[in-house]
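Troubleshooting: if your tokenizer reports a length mismatch, compare your output against this known-good record of 288 residues.
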Amino acid sequence: MNTHNGGRGRIEVRDVGVMFESRGAAVIAVDGVSLTVEPGEFVSLIGPSGCGKSTLLNIVAGFVQPTSGETLLDGKLISCPGSDRGVVFQQYSLFPWLTVRKNVEFGLKMQGVPGSKRETSARTLLGLAGLLSFENHYPDQLSGGMKQRVGIVRALATSPQVLLMDEPFGALDAQTRVVMQEILTNIWQKFRLSVLFVTHDIDESIFLSDKIFVMTARPGRIKAEIQVNLPRPRKPEMTTTPEFVELTQRLRALIREESLSAMGGELKDGGLGGFGMEVGPSGVGAVM
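Known-good structure output:
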């Protein structure tokens, strides 16, 4: 376990359930989920679409209240958002009217930090992320990967104990995504914050994490907890090692089961096998 942050940043999700109303019926989105993120640990949540990964993240962020159970940060009940938790979403949530540096300074300004100290902190963080030469640019002058780097730096600026990330690289192309994963793991190595990271990407979860929780199809429960014992610092060439490939296959099998379950009746009624039919020269019209 990493304790570079003085042992702070312990997340406990205890028997959390979430129910909501849909067309007059109660829908259970998350059911009896318990998990722990130790101080300085990088933990990923992975599972099929609609399994409640983002809902759980939003509960830890304080944006959503669970229907049952409780969530704690360092032993204190989470009931609302707070500066002890930095959040990064897939959508770039930068203020378009502020420069890169002013975006990073924003949270510090809200905390009443004096201007000169804000500027020093922001420039230090931008330097770590390789963005200092862009400090006076506006978000619309940046690439997607750069915007997301600014988003991560902004989340770190208020010195949170926890970084919560919801598919932060989901909108990026494959090459940029791989580079961003390496940048993130390097930044994490420096700060050793507790990270809860939501992703659909199996390779991404393995490359970044100490531990992965696999969720079931709705209602979302924890199906498996997988330790990732690959050495750090993580390097892209690791993805071809037997250990990495074995973890990938194991996770893929777990998630495939749940994805098929989530699709339910459509596939039970021959959805996958149906593509084996002979259509012939008459085309699709012949079988309609």
